[in-house]
Amino acid sequence: xxxxxxxxxxxxxxxxxxxxxxxxxxxxxxxxxxxxxxxxxxxxxxxxxxxxxxxxxxxxxxxxxxxxxxxxxxxxxxxxxxxxxxxxxxxxxxxxxxxxxxxxxxxxxxxxxxxxxxxxxxxxxxxxxxxxxxxxxxxxxxxxxxxxxxxxxxxxxxxxxxxxxxxxxxxxxxxxxxxxxxxxxxxxxxxxxxxxxxxxxxxxxxxxxxxxxxxxxxxxxxxxxxxxxxxxxxxxxxxxxxxxxxxxxxxxxxxxxxxxxxxxxxxxxxxxxxxxxxxxxxxxxxxxxxxxxxxxxxxxxxxxxxxxxxxxxxxxxxxxxxxxxxxxxxxxxxxxxxxxxxxxxxxxxxxxxxxxxxxxxxxxxxxxxxxxxxxxxxxxxxxxxxxxxxxxxxxxxxxxxxxxxxxxxxxxxxxxxxxxxxxxxxxxxxxxxxxxxxxxxxxxxxxxxxxxxxxxxxxxxxxxxxxxxxxxxxxxxxxxxxxxxxxxxxxxxxxxxxxxxxxxxxxxxxxxxxxxxxxxxxxxxxxxxxxxxxxxxxxxxxxxxxxxxxxxxxxxxxxxxxxxxxxxxxxxxxxxxxxxxxxxxxxxxxxxxxxxxxxxxxxxxxxxxxxxxxxxxxxxxxxxxxxxxxxxxxxxxxxxxxxxxxxxxxxxxxxxxxxxxxxxxxxxxxxxxxxxxxxxxxxxxxxxxxxxxxxxxxxxxxxxxxxxxxxxxx
Length: 714
What we know:
alpha+beta, Beta-Lactamase, Alpha-Beta Plaits, six-stranded antiparallel beta sheet
């Protein structure tokens, strides 16, 4: 390594800083003899051969072999032998173990030169390519991971070359595109398949091609990436849904060079999605569209009616006696009946109309381009068809009926939700008319409209409870006989509702709707809480008064009502003798067991019971002897005509006489004038109630009047 001249010194100084191995050696490959005659200083450091005074002549072939990776020796020896035999350039890569550093990759280029006695002079350069090999290894592993990931994810990859107009795709893409079934299964040396653009398009579902072409043109014009979904179709008819991402690569001048795309099979997902969409829009039992799907169709029908001035009809169908089938034969039989109804409606609709199951035993029918008269005729035929159905179940035969409400869909029709309400109300009216009937909303007798008005009133009752638009009134019940002992004056608490303008509505305006739609229980609780809790202390201060509270049939049937009433009475400051309760004869007859239990409980608690509206039932006297009551109100229908109708007078006298024999106090209702008052007094009735005795006044006003009188007395 000692330079022989200045030029050699300068060259050696230069080679000492080059990150490569420059060497000269003599090799007798046949005899296995090797002599290293020169190696640059930089190589000594690079190979970890010791100090700078390293003597290359002492570096043996055995030492060099030990540094070589054993796996590379066979190829390296073969390349040396070949270069020696041909006296041609040697170029090979191998690994060397460098002490203190580890394994290094070398790229060796050398030129052998023959010498006498079978010696070869080798001059060459070995470059450290370890970083390059590390990068190649990292890239290889990345490619392996990518390949593994794409295979695991089922991703297919394709490429389109704008230069030759061909598509190239991998094995997975060939499967996804059904290319093997189409005869395009020719892979190249890289494992890729090639087809022309025309062949590629033939693999795609023809219905999707226009959309894909638009997406591709948009990508070329405006962007570099586009996502889309398309279908492939095999000759057998099998279809696959693919979701894809396509990336455009451009040349330096901006012109398109190639596109690379990835695709994933989403056939199962799309199948599941379609199934879920079907389930979301259809009834699982009958297979008919459900309420959601029907409401969408109804909205479209309304839009068509307004835009195109077309007339349609809406039918709301409710099955009659269906509950009997469910309760006697079981729900399985009920389900079988519903499926039969579904089949019948499908036949009725065919392809022209639309039907759906709304839920339970309710169905709907949308009749397109149909007048009300024609719709009514179809509805009646449908009822006849339902009545003709016979279900044989468990050796018994069952039949049902149907009530149908019909409303028109025209250019002037309201919103779909209001149309459904109209048809529902008309159906309710059909049930009230005796079932198996058809009622047209806006028809001749106005039945549906009256029911609709009741529904609106019922809705107003709920709003009034929330808004505090109810008021308590009090009406005196006057004693007609001299009071004995410390008998209290009686007043009946009456309920009044105000509308949005503050106008007071009479009970006849809202009580029937409250009874029909099961709201009386809520009203009873409102009266009890507002009388006993809100005004309990003020009423308790009026020692000579007893209030009478009406209870409905809803409350008698409610198992939670007595615990509520008991708790409220205990929280009130009123003693039991100041609180009476009234029950109508109708409520008593319709709820005999519940009424008997409640009456026994309430009387045991120290309260008096008054039977209201007595005389309207068919067996009034029969029930009277079964139930212990403290008072009885003779129905006003007998009292208001008593001065002109001798029959009413006889009935009133009989009721009064029987009650007195049973120890029951009597009250005459609807005493509106002095003559009637005199008559009931002469008959011997104990109390009278009516305008001639006293009109209803706000309860708060009655309490204030008593407080003012008390102040004046002081």
